[in-house]
Amino acid sequence: MNAPLETTNLALSQAEQAKRNDLAQRKPYVAAKLARIAEMEERGEISPIIRLEKSYLCNFKCTHCSAEYYMDRHLKNVIKVVDTRSKMEYDDIRNLSRQADELGLARFVITGGEPLVMKDFDQVIEALDPDKHYIITDSNGWFLDLERAKHLKAIGVEKVQISLDSFVEKDHDNFRNKPGSYKRVLRAVDACMEAGLNLILSTVLVKGRARTEEFRQMCEYVTARGIGLYVSYAKPTGSCTEHPEFVIEKEDADILRQLEKEYNVFSHMTPSYGSHKGCITVKGIITVTSTMEVTPCPYIDFSIGNLRETSLKEVLARGMRNPWLGPHRPDCLIGEDPKFIKIHTEKTAGAKLLPLPWGQGFSDNDSLYD
Ligand code: SF4
Known about the structure:
The protein is of the alpha/beta class. It has 13 helices and 9 strands. Helix content is 39%, strand content 11%.
C-alpha cells in the first residue's frame, strides 16, 4: 500500500523513508515482512492485502456503496430475508491472522460498513495482532476526531483511509446523504496527521469527473498536504447497479493516468503502485466477508471459498488456478470485461444472500470460452 509513486518528489520520499524507519523501530517483525513482499512477488508468490468485513453497520447511506447489498438494513427492508449464516467471531480472526502470518502476508484493512461504528473495533485489532500485521482502517471520517485518532494509533492501527467523494462540500454531502460529512472529513485529516497516523484519502471516480475542476482541486489539495489520493472506479455492482450512468469510460481512465504524473494520485491499476500491474484479484487483494467467505475483489460477489471449510492457503491457490482470476490481465475484470460482467449480473440477479458460495459463482469448471 505504501509503494512510492513515480511522481513522488524528494520531500515525500524522505517522509516515506522516515515512516518506514519509525515502523522498523516500533514493529520490526511487521517492517521485515513488508520489506519481503517484493522478494515474494519476484519468486512468483502472491501477497494480497486482506480486507476484513466483520460488520456492515454504517452511519451513512451512500449512493455508490459496494457493501449495501450485504447490510442487514438491505436484507431486512428490501430483500426481506433473515441472514442465518454464522458470522465471524474473534477466534476466526485469530485463526486468519495466524494463517496469513504463516503465508508471509502482512497487511489487513478493516472495512465494512463504517469500521469506527463497531463497538468491538479494539477487540478486532487485538485479535488480528498489530505486532504481526500492518493494520489499516477505512473510515468515512464522521467519528474520527483527534481523541479517536490518537486512540487508533495507541492500539496499533498504522494507517487510515478516509473517503472523500467531492471537493465541493454540498456535492460530497449529497453523495454521502449526510450533511456535515465534508467538514468531518477535513477534521479527520487534521486529526490523523496530528496523531501521527499514515493517511490517504480515497475517492470514487464516476463518469466525467476526471475532467472537472473539482477533481483537479482535490488532486492539488492532497499533493499540497503530502498525502495520497486513492481513486477507485465506480463499478456496476452494489448500489451502483442502480446507477449505470456512474460507470466510467476509457477517457476518464486516460485522464486519470495523466493526473497521476502530476499529483499524488493513484489507483490500484497505477503501474508504480505495488509491483502488480493490472487487475489484482487474489494476487493483490482479497476480502473476507462477515460469513468468512473470501471474494477476490471488493466488487465481485462470487466467493472462492469459505475459511471455516477451507484453509486460506488452499483458497488462494484455488483463486490463482481460476482462469478469470489467476492470469495477468491489464483490464478490470468486473468493470471492463463484458462477458464476465454479464455472468456476474445474471448469477447475482436473483440472489438473496451474497456472495454466491464457491461452486455457484466461481467453480473449478470455469472457462473463458463458451
Ligand atoms: S476486477 Fe477490477 S476492481 Fe476488481 S481487482 Fe480487478 S481491476 Fe480491480
